[in-house]
């Protein structure tokens, strides 16, 4: 069975991490599977939204610690480096990625979640960067994205203590967009995917670029960047249709190709 399974349905790419016996821990096959998902989304313009979730009681419990102990230093390190690169590519995709966190999102699992555009958590979910307990540090963007999301000092505390936090606490810190009943998790993810799908794909792509790339710039550069993307959106056929539809009091029919 593949470590990462995916299927496209009505414009949504449903992705499931599928190593429940190891709490969906990240090994070479897992990273290869995630790369395949990113390539698929990039090459198939019918995909409008991606939803990631995990099989069993974990979203993903991080890097496969057995791989760390059994493989060569080189294989283990290069697997995590490769994960980091795939996450950057996922962030750069034109389509939004929703993480539906069904359980543990620890170490690399929390890093995957943070590279997604929206995080919806089951009330059973928990988050953390426990690498410090293994004598290592996060290696796929964890220290950097966490500090930018929850703030410098809280990120420092979480990475230094390895403490695990609940979905509610993650929500309070702004790490999670919403917390939902466990049984409603996938319905909520679908609802969010449908809302995004109803928008202009071009505007969705520009929002994603403006927020994600702008976030990595200084404020002044970010505002200039947004201004350029706004000009692009403003001269697009979807803008013409969206504005016309509002004036004519009808639903906009955005381009689908
Ligand atoms: N790697 C490999 N196997 C793992 C794993 C991991 N990260 N996490 C859990 N497993 C395995 C366990 O070894 C166990 O397997 P066996 O049944 O064969 O013993 C199985 O999954 C179930 O796990 P537990 O019995 O431990 O389940 P639990 O409910 O008692 O505890 C847990 C759950 C708190 C998540 C605990 O499993 C745990 O602490 N896991 C490790 C989490 C961790 O440290 N992650 C960080 C990894 S390093 C990293 O991610 C670096 C990076 O930046 C990418």
From TrEMBL:
Family annotation (InterPro entries): ClpP/crotonase-like_dom_sf, Enoyl-CoA_hyd/isom_CS, Enoyl-CoA_hydra/iso, Enoyl-CoA_hydra_C
MF terms in GO: hydro-lyase activity
Record has Lyase as a keyword: yes
SUPFAM superfamilies: ClpP/crotonase
Keywords carried by this UniProt record: Lyase
Keyword Lyase among UniProt keywords: yes
A biological process from GO: fatty acid beta-oxidation
PANTHER family attached to this UniProt entry: ENOYL-COA HYDRATASE, MITOCHONDRIAL, ENOYL-COA HYDRATASE-RELATED
Similarity section: Belongs to the enoyl-CoA hydratase/isomerase family.
Protein name as catalogued: Enoyl-CoA hydratase (Fad-3)
Organism: Archaeoglobus fulgidus (strain ATCC 49558 / DSM 4304 / JCM 9628 / NBRC 100126 / VC-16)
Native organism taxonomy: Archaea, Methanobacteriati, Methanobacteriota, Archaeoglobi, Archaeoglobales
